[in-house]
Write a structure and sequence with these properties.
Elements: H1 7-15, E1 19-25, H2 29-40, E2 46-49, E3 64-65, H3 77-93, E4 98-107, H4 114-121, H5 133-150, E5 157-159, H6 161-167, E6 177-186, H7 189-203, E7 208-211, E8 213-218, E9 223-227, E10 233-243, H8 249-256, E11 269-276, H9 279-285, E12 289-293, E13 299-305, E14 308-312, E15 316-317, H10 328-341, E16 352-360, E17 377-382, E18 391-397, H11 403-417, H12 459-462
The protein binds flavin-adenine dinucleotide.
Flavin-adenine dinucleotide binds at residues 25-31, 48-51, 55-58, 60-64, 214-215, 244-248, 252, 271, 313, 358-361, 395, 398-401.
Length: 463
């Protein structure tokens, strides 16, 4: 579809489509990424979103584009490595939205946490505990190895008490050491999501993205989509339906085939953030993020946010993703966590200028501690059967940081289902075919180039 097509033109195009090779439901970053990857292969997928693009988890993240230091403890080395690669890709190719972020971890002891970390690594414990300087240094050294392999971020640094006090005089007396390293943050995740849609529609003019269009029912052969603005209904027979519904995946599956054949895929946890107007705290941070463990050993963050400070977050299990709001108790919890690190910083309620929250679409898990649930992603395929004539591919879990990788994996699975091959990789196409490079075309340093035998169906990529 032309990028500048009106909504009416889009609806009109949809009226003419009674079948579709692929229908993607859910316009969060993972649905969008799958749409883009398919468009780059010339597949005219349809993407629908019931509200605004990236309105749910994809607009409620902590804004960190990061490797995920703490996932090393649970042995998720592949996830951390993959995340660091994707972070570095975004830093180069979406440099208009993703920026390096110096990050400091306050530490209270030298050797603490080693036994517990080993127990967590061996899956003998899921109890969060305070981590000492040696443990954090080990994690940061592994991080450095991944970073050096794929990017150009500076190495980490561990400071003793005097140097820590010198840089951070307002830290609580319990802080004896500190460690600093680099990750990244994204200033406008929704905007980048939207640019990926534009890029996809440019790559494949028959690809069609429509928001305020909800999947409301299904009869086994076809699905019904409803325009949230006019109430008009559309019926479509997809060959493959991609369920990218995030925290709504299970609800959506029930709507597609109301049987008990589906096992529960998602165990969402709510996360809330505060934006506070506090010039003193902003001054203290001086452009850095503080990534710290609060009284319970839960990881919290604070960093400068357009002249304010972003603080977060909570991690609370929820069953109904539609009803989440940032509760008063969560505000109190986040401010209490802030006082734990900066006891002399007074933050009155009136400094809270904004709150936001979303539900992490984490895989269903019986872990006792939410922070220990894997942030990795996976695909669950439900082949056609008596309940649904189409293949149903569910996108479970994932981080914002790794959307491109997840989208590529999902698109590859779809291509196999429709008997097509991948002809172009967004990751390997540093031209306009990589939406994240639209504003910064150039070779991806340290990453493999496009094999010369691969030709994208996207004209801009063929040259
Ligand atoms: C509090 C919090 C902090 C986070 N922090 C970070 C971070 O700092 N860094 C990081 O990398 N990741 C972070 N994440 C994780 C990341 O944001 C998510 O993993 C990612 O955004 C999930 O994207 P998604 O597309 O799978 O789901 P979502 O963004 O939730 O999208 C699913 C979409 O499906 C739509 N939908 C549902 N049902 C229907 C229907 N019937 N018809 C049409 N549309 C439908 C919904 O409206 C929704 O927009 C965080 C998440 C949260 C919640």
């Amino acid at each position: 579809m032309e990028n500048n097509a009106t909504r009416e033109q889009r609806l009109s195009a949809l009226r003419q489509r009674t079948t579709s090779p692929v229908l993607i439901v859910g316009g969060g970053i993972n649905g969008i990424s799958t749409f883009r990857e398919l468009a780059l292969q010339g597949i005219p997928a349809i993407l629908v979103e019931k509200g605004d693009w990236c309105q749910a988890a994809s607009g409620a993240l902590s804004r960190m584009i990061h490797g995920g230091l703490r996932y090393l403890e649970t042995g998720e080395f592949t996830l951390v490595k993959e995340s660091v690669i994707e972070r570095d890709r975004l830093l180069k190719n979406a440099a208009h939205y993703v920026f390096p972020l110096r990050t400091t971890v306050p530490i209270d002891n030298l050797g603490g946490g080693l036994i517990n970390a080993t127990r967590r690594f061996l899956r003998l414990s899921d109890k969060p505990t305070r981590r000492g300087a040696l443990l954090i240094k080990t994690g940061l050294s592994i991080y450095d190895v991944y970073t050096r392999q794929f990017g150009s971020m500076p190495k980490h640094q561990v400071r003793g008490e005097a140097a820590t006090r010198d840089r951070w005089p307002a830290f609580a007396p319990w802080v004896k050491y500190s460690a600093s390293y680099y990750d990244a943050w994204i200033c406008a995740p929704e905007r980048l999501g939207y640019e990926l849609i534009e890029d996809a529609e440019r790559a494949c003019p028959d690809a069609l993205a429509l928001n305020y269009l909800q999947l409301v029912s299904a009869d086994g052969e076809s699905v019904t989509l409803q325009d949230a603005l006019s109430g008009e209904r559309f019926t479509l027979q997809p060959h493959v339906l991609v369920n990218a519904g995030g925290a709504w995946i299970d609800q959506l599956n029930q709507r597609l085939a109301p049987t008990d054949q589906f096992s529960k895929l998602i165990g969402g946890t709510k996360g809330s953030h505060l934006i506070i107007d506090h010039p003193d705290l902003l001054h203290l941070l001086d452009g850095e993020m503080v990534y710290f463990e609060n009284q319970e050993g839960r990881v919290c963050i604070m960093f400068p946010w357009f002249g304010k400070v972003l603080l977060g977050s909570t991690d609370i299990r929820v069953d109904d993703p539609d009803s989440v709001v940032c509760e008063e108790a969560e505000k109190a919890y986040i401010l209490e966590s802030l006082r734990f690190v900066f006891p002399n910083i007074v933050v009155p309620e009136s400094s809270i200028v904004y709150t936001f929250c979303g539900v992490r679409p984490l895989p269903a898990s019986d872990a006792k501690v939410n922070g220990q649930i894997s942030r990795n992603h996976s695909l669950v395929l439900l082949p056609p059967d008596a309940a649904h004539a189409y293949s149903l591919l569910c996108l479970v879990g994932g981080k914002w940081t790794t959307f491109r990788q997840f989208g590529e994996e999902a698109a590859d699975r779809v291509l196999r289902l429709i008997g097509e091959n991948a002809v172009c990789r967004a990751a390997n196409c540093p031209s306009a075919a990589d939406a994240t490079s639209l504003h910064r075309p150039g070779k991806l340093r340290g990453l493999p180039n496009s094999p010369s035998s691969i030709h994208c169906r996207y004209p801009a990529c063929r040259s």
